[in-house]
Amino acid sequence: MSGIRYLALGDSYTIGEGVAPHERWPERLAATLRERGYPMADPEVVARTGWTCDELAAGISAAALRGPYALVSLLIGVNDQYRGGTPDEYRPRFDAICALAKSLAGERTGRVVVLSIPDWGVSPFAPERGRAEIAREIDAFNAVNRAVAARAGARYVDITAASRAAVDRACFVADGLHPAAAVHAEWARLAVDAAERALRV
Question: What is the largest CA-CA distance in the chain?
Fold first, then answer.
């Protein structure tokens, strides 16, 4: 369908591992924006379960995307943390991804919306004893992406607190790790105001 172009970049949280395509948060975000009067096209999604920043960068290159997009969302970093990376290693990689997002938004960073990394430590998948450490590491990674986004002039949406509130088993799909449809709906709700501001740039 034609309309305002939206590009969603990320990993399993963006691709919506375990939920139907119409239930993932980028699709819900676009639907809410349509309800607000914006003729949004269906989101173009470059995301894959397990991707780190570097793998997302390679995926963007392979996709041969044709910008500019009126809206670009970016949610990446949980796998950089999960694989044992450090915030210092994450910083230049996330900075490079932000630069790619800016380029795809026609060099208008105000069109880029960065979402914080959810805390997978609250999931049934996470080891009970490791949850506090996971939370500390997620906070450290989010301090990096918040600072990088601010320096770049991108918009920032904190969905980590909402992810930590989703502790019921029904908040997760069958694998016990990835968020269920209701959580995606909440993330879209949290992101919509920033996305609408981005569309006004």
Answer: 49
